[in-house]
């Protein structure tokens, strides 16, 4: 991922502000709870959900084990169907490939289907630097783009905004980007949707180049799949003359049959729908139907390294449904921006530090941005054990040292010595109990203060349990 | 049946009454309980904070301290989950790192024998009515580890429902994490406090006098938040409720010396 997010403060610092932003908290709580409850109902409708989830997990694991073979097969099939495959090792390379492809068409505008991969590499910014304007056509992405904002949710990038805020953004900004918002725009969903529709239609009809990601790529036929709710994606995939799809290498599945599993898991987990309103599939090019030129940019950008980590690689199973965000109590309070990445919430906390490494303050703090409550693991449709990966990454961060962790390591070492010597431990606990009248209610050292800022310390007992036992159960 | 109590390090040092309650309760149910003094801590705080290697001596210590007991009973879902979920991982990693089978064997010997209190009561002793008496309005917070990692299900609820005099009221958002999360509480104090505040306001909305849980770590956090707010509610461990009887409704006698083995 590129540099915009680096230099972000660590997660606890970023979250400090958002926990106090009452409007943000209210927007998030409302939105995540609504979708969370709907998802639970949609999942409960299927009595084979557990088997589907297991199947999804296994297909992904099996694919990841033979990723090289499937990617080669995919490349052959895409090429045979008239497309061109490009391999990009990192964000810079992917951006360069896309920019050159657009320039070769002579165009200076492109329409975009909402895509995490292109956000991850910050393609829009890279294109802008080359004089190319990229128009986001997903409603929520449009809101983020017009608001000069950052996405804060995988599926609903503008989840942190309420209707009134959206109306204001449309009214102020649409004119700068194209067709202005209608006079006297209200904040009802219908009015907002209509304003976006009119604004976007102009772009769809003009565009010669479309850029997308993909939810899945089928190796056996070289077919790409995008699922969406608004139909804007289908416009971008069919109307332009040139289509460029930028897709992470982990999105491949072996066969069409595998889609049966994922096209059930994904919509129910993400939008609580039984089926996606729009499921678009495209295979290479065909005469007189859709784009005449198709390019697939296969993106690595840290994925091969992630694959090399035995515990961490399960993060590559992710199908970006965002269910884990919607149930995460930490995400709900901290907001998506605090994660300093296009991947927020529980999946972001394990994926970002693997894709980017843990050198920066924000990336080193992400594995700790969880209580390990396990709600994310419970809802994940491909059974990614997010808490397991978090702890695994904490170990890496602790080992690499850095601010705080060296001192912490010393404390842990001393603690382990004490815990391995019950007599010494008993003496320390006993001493603490004996001096309990002297303990202040709020503590001065930073770590302890972090506790006593909002909570009282427990009153210590007169004596530890082990002393009571010795006395009463001789 | 040889049963060992693992009260956990937190309860040993901070909440000895929970340990005493488990002893009183199990003895009342005819179980002979032992407390092996060589025990200390399961290593959960170290492991969850990223210090896997520092937990290894504790895995050995736990296995040694509890060798020879049929069951190890603990009034903490998260410590049970630490043993059950993470000890095998620690063993497997050590083996993969070429450091032999010792840890894996230690884990293997412990995992099937370590039970959370409500599992022991319901699954091994096969009781839900433990003859308790607790005339209070109580709401129950199912801690995350018990709820999701152990899958305690309705065991705690069934035990509470059988308590004479107890009025159980539903906690809104019960399944949401309270925000403790071990070192999370100090590493991310603002989010932790925000979660604690929501848990407390949900709890207070029930009008209960007592918030009951089966993990004193969560209760430490919720109780500390309640006390800071001077709220009219206290936190009580489930074991302490189950140990109260008509004859001893406040648990005043739990501490009384008792000859071993007399029920
Ligand atoms: S980690 Fe699982 S729940 Fe979260 S977005 Fe990915 S697939 Fe969905």
Layout of SSEs?
The complex is a heterodimer of chains A (474) and B (263).
Chain A: H1 11-20, H2 22-44, H3 49-65, H4 67-80, E1 84-88, H5 91-105, E2 109-112, H6 116-120, H7 123-129, E3 133-136, H8 139-146, H9 163-177, H10 189-206, E4 209-212, E5 216-218, E6 223-228, H11 232-238, E7 242-248, E8 252-253, H12 256-270, E9 278-283, E10 293-299, H13 303-308, H14 323-327, H15 329-334, H16 345-356, H17 361-365, H18 375-379, H19 386-400, H20 405-419, H21 422-434, H22 446-452, H23 465-472
Parallel strand pairs in A: 1-10, 2-3, 2-4, 4-7, 5-8, 7-10
Antiparallel strand pairs in A: 5-6, 6-9
Chain B: E1 3-5, H1 9-13, H2 16-28, E2 33-34, H3 44-49, H4 52-65, E3 71-74, H5 77-96, H6 102-110, E4 114-116, H7 117-124, E5 137-141, H8 144-149, H9 155-161, E6 167-169, H10 184-187, H11 189-204, E7 210-213, H12 216-228, E8 234-237, H13 238-243
Parallel strand pairs in B: 1-2, 1-3, 3-4, 5-6, 5-7, 7-8
Helix pairs in contact in B: 4-6, 5-6, 11-12
Briefly say what this structure is.
The complex is a heterodimer of chains A (474) and B (263). By secondary structure, chain A is an alpha/beta fold.
What does this protein look like?
The complex is a heterodimer of chains A (474) and B (263). The longest helix of chain A is centred in the first third of the chain and has 23 residues, at 22-44. By secondary structure, chain A is an alpha/beta fold. In chain A, helix 3 (49-65) crosses helix 12 (256-270) and helix 16 (345-356) packs across helix 19. Chain A is built from 23 helices and 10 strands. In chain A, strand 5 and strand 6 form a beta hairpin. With 263 residues, chain B is α/β, with parallel strands linked by helices. Chain B is globular and about 55 Å long. Chain B is built from 13 helices and 8 strands. The mean pLDDT of chain B is 94. Helices cover 48% and strands 11% of the residues of chain B. The two termini of chain B are 14 Å apart. In chain B, helix 11 packs across helix 12 (216-228). Chains A and B meet through helix 1, helix 15, helix 18, helix 19 and helix 20 of A and helix 1, helix 2, helix 3, helix 4 and helix 8 of B. The complex binds iron/sulfur cluster. Iron/sulfur cluster (SF4) binds at residues 269, 318-324, 347, 379-382, 384 of chain A. Iron/sulfur cluster binds next to helix 14 of chain A.
